[in-house]
Amino acid sequence: MSIYAFCLYTAFPTIPENFEEETWTEVKSAISKIFLKKEAALHSLDCLNLIECERHIAAELESLVQYQTPDSVALLSCIDTCWQDHSERMSLINRIMGSALSPFRFEGKPTPKLPKLWDMGFQLFRKHLFRSPTVESDIVTCLLGMVDKERSGEDVVKTLLSRLLKMFKALGIYSESLETLYLEWTSEFYAAEGVKYMQHSDVPDYLKHVETRLREEHERCLHYMDASTEKSLVGIAEKQLLDCHISAILDKVFSWL
């Protein structure tokens, strides 16, 4: 049979009258099972919208927003767990998408342009986690506090920092909510440290300390900060530790001559 004859006499699938209603019923059930972490045989379905997802995300984050603890690591760990669960669930929902709209393609109709599921999931997570400005501020303060501890030689869970900073990046708030404040904190940290070390160190020891700090900032970006931050970060360290003290360094050098 020729391709022309096949196309002429083959009946292509058509959309049932109750297609949308039945599809949404199955999708709603599947999403509920995913968020409740129940095992289920999930059909390949298309999430026509995320109303049901939002209901579960809002409920999940409600308790987290109300969580009160002086332990910053405990708070960040709870947020990390919630974020990892959210990512896994959205990944599973994403995998069961795809074939429900295939009848539209068979009929030659264009597939509706829908927002990317991942992007919508991130928007919902951000909306409900940060609906209170104090929550976002508390999280950022805890993150920056951990960085300060690590700079001061204390042990911190760098993998936790890395995952949460990647969360900020994925949610599209890394630059506006965290990076700017982080660079300000860095500038203040090294401004104070530069003055302190210049008062009690000779030039060789001071320059060795500066070299160590610059290397640490580079490694910091490798371990948990976003790579886009490195140029500004190293530049601030150089300015506060070297540029601001160049006169004092030269004075000490000339005093030896």
UniProtKB/TrEMBL annotation:
Pfam families: Cullin
Source organism, top-level taxon: Eukaryota
Residue ranges of domain Cullin N-terminal in the record: 17-256
Any single GO BP term: ubiquitin-dependent protein catabolic process
Recorded GO MF terms: ubiquitin protein ligase binding
PANTHER family according to UniProt: CULLIN
Similarity remark: Belongs to the cullin family.
Name used for this protein in its record: Cullin N-terminal domain-containing protein
Originating organism: Prunus armeniaca (Apricot)
Taxonomic classification: Eukaryota, Viridiplantae, Streptophyta, Embryophyta, Tracheophyta
